């Protein structure tokens, strides 16, 4: 197995772990918002989720570039959409508009779940098949 293949395999395993953390943060946000928990708690989860997502998406995008991934642009558009949606939620939360946070969090969870199941799975298959 080549060095790039080893890096790709390790990166795919790492991305799966990162996806679980990201989904966990989204589930925590859904629960906290749905239970009308303290605004500081919801804000903290949102901040962690946004920061984590930014880092995860950046590392995934770098891996896609390393592999000359053919669906890079559409995949990155999903990342941008997700980050925009999370930042809007954070802005609404900061403005005290908490009524829409639970619904927005549920939509974000559904979106990222679908993204992982489709776009991220396609990328993992692409990497696996290009070895």
Total number of distinct structural domains: 1
* SS content category: mainly alpha
Contiguous low-pLDDT stretches (5 residues minimum) are 3-11
Mean of residue pLDDT?
89
Distance between the termini: 8 Å
What about the largest sheet? none
Task: Indicate the CATH topology.
Answer: Four Helix Bundle (Hemerythrin (Met), subunit A)
CATH architecture: Up-down Bundle
The SSE order reads HHHH
Number of contiguous helices? 4
What global shape is seen? elongated
**Text of the CATH class:** Mainly Alpha
Q: Roughly what percent helix?
A: over 70%
CATH homologous superfamily identity: Hemerythrin-like
Strand content: under 5%
Walkthrough of the structure:
With 131 residues, this protein is mainly alpha-helical. Helices cover 85% and strands 0% of the residues. It is built from four helices and no strands. It has helices at 3-34, 39-66, 72-94, 101-129. Helix 1 (3-34) runs antiparallel to helix 2 (39-66).
Defining traits:
Four Helix Bundle (Hemerythrin (Met), subunit A); 85% helix; mainly alpha; 4 helices
Kindly summarize this structure in a few lines:
The protein is mainly α and 131 residues long.
